[in-house]
TrEMBL record:
Organism: Paractinoplanes brasiliensis
Annotated HTH cro/C1-type domain residues: 38-85
Protein name: Transcriptional regulator with XRE-family HTH domain
Highest taxon of source: Bacteria
Pfam families hit by this protein: HTH_31, MLTR_LBD
Length: 281
């Protein structure tokens, strides 16, 4: 089911991608009676240039050392992008235990404090927010209740209400977790287990096996203080071996979105805010 972490992570990923690949998208006939929603195992084998028996062994976890050529062929069949192919290779090869630390450097904390008009936060591979500045806390007031963004996103009604485009944001969040987290870690097993039990939405999206590293994008918020606004974000991996990432929100200068951020920044200092209605929204 892909709910918890699995001893056959490669097989789980291949099955999910096979089910998600429509026959007509890879030049196979879509008609007729099919027992599976996507490709059959023998169709994958033909398209990837390998025997059906070999592919079945891959899915079942009986073959654990596929060559890079085999992985590349499977990536082409399933239409994997760079993030998806990197994840496939990680599932197939020997995995080193990544380093994780909850300690944020003093220099990074100082930067966060200096960026008074720029929302920014530092998190680990599992969505635990390790440090954030005042404006990021104003955008995500739920951080005062729970420091894990995944739990907030799926289990906290007030946080969920911040996202008018919740489904798309949820897919992005789950795809990032699968791309970034250590698949062998007890921390991931615990988090996925909790969210699966408490959130049918999370269980549904986790079972898709989507993979997308977080780098850049756009978020739309419906905020209780300043109303609806959008920000772009950039995410940077800290090159200190900590496994941490820095995410910074920003808006086009002079835009209504930038005005909303400025008003929210003012509110974090004064506790009051006055925003004129935007006729264009």
């Amino acid at each position: 089911m892909g709910v918890m972490t699995s001893s056959n992570a490669l097989g789980d990923f291949l099955r999910a991608r096979r089910a998600a690949t429509r026959p007509e998208h890879v030049g196979m006939p879509a008609g007729g009676r099919r027992r599976v929603p996507g490709l059959r195992r023998d169709e994958v084998a033909v398209l990837a240039g390998m025997s059906t028996d070999y592919y079945v062994r891959l899915e079942q976890g009986r073959e654990r050392n596929p060559s890079d050529e085999v992985l590349g062929a499977l990536g082409r069949v399933f239409g994997l992008d760079g993030d998806g192919l990197a994840h496939l290779r990680r599932m197939a090869g020997p995995r080193e235990q990544p380093s994780d630390t909850a300690q944020v450097s003093a220099g990074m904390r100082r930067l966060l404090e200096l960026w008074r008009d720029t929302p920014a936060l530092v998190q680990n591979r599992y969505g635990d927010v390790l440090a954030y500045n005042r404006l990021a806390g104003a955008i995500h007031p739920g951080l005062a209740r729970d420091r894990n963004l995944l739990r907030l996103f799926f289990l906290d009604a007030e946080e969920r209400a911040l996202f008018p485009e919740w489904e798309q944001s949820a897919r992005t969040a789950v795809a990032w977790l699968r791309a970034d987290a250590d698949p062998d870690s007890a921390r991931l097993a615990s988090l996925v287990g909790e969210l699966t039990l408490k959130s049918p939405d999370f269980a549904r999206l986790w079972a898709r096996h989507d993979v997308r590293a977080k780098s850049t994008g756009r978020k739309l918020f419906r905020h209780p203080v300043v109303g609806e606004f959008a920000v772009d974000y950039e995410t940077f991996r800290l090159e200190d071996g900590s496994g941490q990432t820095l995410t910074v929100y920003h808006a086009e200068p002079g835009s209504p979105d930038a005005d909303a951020l400025a008003l929210l920044a003012s509110h974090t200092v004064t506790g009051t805010v006055e925003r004129q209605p935007d006729p264009h929204r």
